[in-house]
Structures are given as structure tokens and as C-alpha cells.
Specification:
6 helices, two-stranded antiparallel sheet, alpha+beta, five-stranded antiparallel sheet
Length: 215
């Protein structure tokens, strides 16, 4: 919930603030609730005001990132197949994310994950870094039942829709840590990474070889 203190504000400032909030609300399209939280998250659409992201879109970016994290971690916990199509456009990254979800669900069933996944995460203050025009890195720290985690997302706008072009949870012994690199070496700053076929082939090969830890 966003609280606004109006005391001392001029009528013009108040009107500008209200218009900004209206823009934020209009940039998140939430379909009619289905009664299934994961489906509702999957069906949300997030858009920005122009063809490129600007500081005016920061709250939308944060909502976008938090929704993705809740969708992914909720799907792990509930052993559900979900669609990330409204979050990821790159086919290689989409395939990787789907496969990572599948493997971490299997890991969860065997009790091999050292963190607690769930749908209703508690988020700390989000950090947004501008790397280039229309390229931003979102850092999200969150927890579930006291289990702390983090997620980094590289975000762009494509035809006014927000789009994840790279992502990294980096949990110890997590799938992405094992197959894409240690947190100290894994940098999210290359928007074309998942179009690099050498990189993609290497990651997919490691996915195929990924061995789930024994319970």
C-alpha cells in the first residue's frame, strides 16, 4: 500500500502525484481473478509508458519482478506447471526457466533444497540499476517462512511490454548456480546472452547432465 502525505503540498503537486499513481495502476493489467493465484500471476501483463523504460516506470518494474518471483517460487512449492510467457520472450531463456522449474520441483520433492519456496514472499527494498537506455537490473531480496533468498532480473521493454532478458536466483546448489555460474562470476549485464548459441549450448548440456542430490 502506498501512503501519501498531502500536508504542505500544493494542489498542482497533489494532482501530479495522483496522475503518477494512475499511470502505475494502468501499467499493470490484471485479468479477472480465476481463484488460482498462480494462474492470476501468470496472466498479468506489465507495460511502460513509452517504448523505453524510464524512472517513471520503476514501481511497475518492481511489481513485475515481484510477480515473477512469486510465480516461480509458488510453482516450485505447489508442484504446478505455469506459463512464463508474459514475463519472458526469448525462447532459449524460456526453455531454461521451464527446465529449471521442473528440476527444482523434483529436488523439492526429494528434500534436496536448502531454502523454503512459497507463493507469498516477503520482499525487502528492491534495488534498480540503469545499465543502458532501456536496460535495467532489478535486485530483489525476499524471504519465505524466514528462509532468505534473492533474485536478479535483467529487464527491458519491448513494444511497451516489460520483458526479462536474463535472470538469476543464485541459491546454493540451485540449478542456475550449478549450470550458469557461481554468484561471484555470474554477471547480469548482457541483454543478448541467451542469443549466444555457444553459451546456450553449454548451459543446455549442463542441464542434461544435472544430477539431483540424493536425499
Amino acid at each position: 500500500m502506498i501512503s501519501i502525505v498531502l500536508a504542505g503540498c500544493t494542489q498542482e503537486e497533489h494532482q501530479t502525484t495522483q496522475e503518477s499513481l494512475s499511470n502505475i495502476e494502468a501499467s499493470v493489467e490484471t485479468p479477472e481473478p480465476t481463484g488460482k493465484p498462480l494462474n492470476d500471476l501468470a496472466n498479468q501483463q506489465f507495460s511502460v509508458q513509452t517504448d523505453q523504460i524510464s524512472e517513471a516506470d520503476y514501481e511497475t518494474i518492481k511489481s513485475f519482478g515481484k510477480a515473477f518471483v512469486d510465480l516461480y517460487t509458488g510453482a516450485v512449492a505447489e508442484q504446478e506447471t505455469v506459463s512464463f510467457d508474459n514475463y519472458i520472450a526469448n525462447e532459449n531463456l524460456l526453455h531454461f526457466t521451464n527446465k529449471m522449474l521442473e528440476l527444482e520441483q523434483r529436488q523439492e520433492l526429494k528434500g534436496g533444497i536448502g531454502v523454503i519456496f512459497g507463493l507469498n514472499n516477503e520482499f525487502q527494498q528492491a534495488e534498480i540499476e540503469k545499465l543502458d537506455d532501456n536496460l535495467y537490473r532489478l535486485n530483489l531480496a525476499f524471504s519465505n517462512q524466514g528462509s532468505g533468498m534473492s533474485c536478479q532480473l535483467l529487464v527491458q521493454a519491448d513494444q511497451k511490454s516489460l520483458n526479462i532478458v536474463d535472470l538469476y536466483f543464485g541459491n546454493k546448489d540451485g540449478v542456475d548456480t550449478t549450470v550458469t555460474g557461481h554468484p561471484a562470476a555470474r554477471k547480469l549485464d548482457h541483454p543478448e546472452l541467451w542469443n549466444d548459441q555457444v553459451w546456450v549450448d553449454s548451459v543446455m548440456e549442463k542441464l542434461e547432465e544435472y544430477d539431483l542430490p540424493s536425499s
